[in-house]
Amino acid sequence: MSASNMTPGEIVSELDKYIVGQNRAKRAVAVALRNRWRRQQVAEPLRHEIHPKNILMIGPTGVGKTEIARRLAKLANAPFIKIEATKFTEVGYVGRDVDTIIRDLTEYSIKQTRELEMRRVRTQAEDAAEDRILDALVPPPRGASGEPERGEDNSARQTFRKRLREGKIDDLEIEIEVAQAAPQMDVMTPPGMEEMAEQLRGMFAGLARDKKKSKKMKVREAFKLIVDEEAAKRINEEDLRTVAINNVEQNGIVFLDEIDKIAARQESGGADVSRQGVQRDLLPLVEGTTVNTRYGMVRTDHILFIASGAFHLARPSDLIPELQGRFPIRVELESLTAEDFVRILGDTDASLTKQYTALLATEDVQLEFTDEGVRRLAELAYEVNETTENIGARRLYTVMEKLLDELSFDATASSNKTVKIDAAYVNAQLAEAASSQDLARYVL
């Protein structure tokens, strides 16, 4: 089920499988996604006047801001892009300008729409690929014009068709005509001219698209290649672009990470000029403007923007007032507790304990995490966060790597072995490093 058809409660339940706590942030994101669907049910011209309410997520590092975005990307059946605000520079400076956000989002939508269309025509493409491979194996009779005549399969073609479908001739080598691959050309352009580079690449690719060449390959490889080629023939590129651009304009989501890094701090100096320039450049995108892409003009009026930042050194009020006003929904994410760490390790889908258990099981080493072991692991991670730098749930990765370091290295020589990860094992591996603040700073 895609997020567009899910209720806010269902979206939150889906996020709960991977993210512990942070209910306010989950609710805000869920309502924003559901509002996309609600807006589509409203008749014009009122629908055009309903703009998305952008979200600003505030919270320390490692509490789930980026994870919410990552899970949202998988959940939302919509064009989605996550970018760091620090990657961009003011127009006129060396670096990427903010319009590339929309260009990248459009590229993603084109790719997403193309994949959907390829799946839709796949059955027809497979039938055509079968015929082309059979033509190479058992050429059909040719008419007066020299073109192959399609008719009922003769007994030889029927035999080969049956064997092809059963996979019995996958390793047989045949010679077929395939479209020539476009040359991979790296076009060098000055900063800010990325669009021109894309257009030049597209032009060179178009020159090679209609050229064909004979190639020898195995039936298995040829079938995959021809299916893709035949599917591409059945896709109307103009319609594909129209659908993809409309999807960006109506359902696009942009996740702006590290937005606090471009906020101007009162006590800092000259760098603020560039930061404010990026904010001013972002403002038209968030308010609604038209961006020229290689596929056509894209309006940003109804694209949802979700921004996030730790705001340790800056505050949301340090953003320029116009940009603050375009993020009316603000949610604060709480710091994680030791109890949260226990739930992250034990209750979430694809938790770290499940990941490491599955990894080492490939070497016939069975890990058994006890409840006491998981709790002690969570407590140590929390203690290290408190005594050194608080990096939130990311500390669990560091602690888990240190815990299983020797076991991972010696796993090949220790096959058919069961290792019980209890509190005593955790203490033996980690207690010394965790108790020494200097050691914890470098090791954990």
TrEMBL record:
It holds the Pfam family AAA. GO terms for molecular function: ATP binding; ATP hydrolysis activity; peptidase activity; proteasome-activating activity. ATP binds at residues 20, 62-67, 257, 322, 394. SUPFAM superfamilies: P-loop containing nucleoside triphosphate hydrolases. Residues 51-333 form the AAA+ ATPase domain. ATPase subunit of a proteasome-like degradation complex; this subunit has chaperone activity. The binding of ATP and its subsequent hydrolysis by HslU are essential for unfolding of protein substrates subsequently hydrolyzed by HslV. HslU recognizes the N-terminal part of its protein substrates and unfolds these before they are guided to HslV for hydrolysis. This is ATP-dependent protease ATPase subunit HslU. It comes from Achromobacter ruhlandii. The lineage of its organism: Bacteria, Pseudomonadati, Pseudomonadota, Betaproteobacteria, Burkholderiales.
